[in-house]
Amino acid sequence: MEPLNLPAFEYKVKQVNGKPHIFDIIRRKFVQLTPEEWVRQHFIHLLINQYGYPKSLFAIETGMKYNKLAKRTDIMILSQEGTPFLLVECKAPFVKIGEATLAQIGRYNFTLRPTYLATTNGFSHYCFQAVDGQIHYMDDFPTYRNLNSE
Questions:
Q1: Where in this chain does the record put each Type I restriction enzyme R protein N-terminal domain (predicted)?
Q2: Which of 54, 109, 131, 146 suits a disulfide with 142, CB 3.0-4.6 Å?
């Protein structure tokens, strides 16, 4: 896999049925290593190592319903009360983050109502704060300290 615009981290990869799998420290198992998973694993480690989130607050590929359609969130950080705090949509490095991706996280916002929304393809990263139905662009991602001060 190619280097991303995210900090490197130590990872474990093994072959399962001839396909590479990477160890996910949140789900505590090896998962198939796709380009999107490569981005997700980098972002998980970024949130833990640089933004201070404990592993216990992560929910990975959590199911949800939107207009009777089953959807999955890539990364969700929960508050101490178990409500969505930060929702991250990961894309493969070759997928441009454009209107379709922003519309997707907008739909997730409508359903889950997290305080913060983010999207990344491993090279470009965007974060937004949802306040009273308005979405505001942020220069950086919220830290665990932000979660505790909300």
A1: 35-142
A2: 146
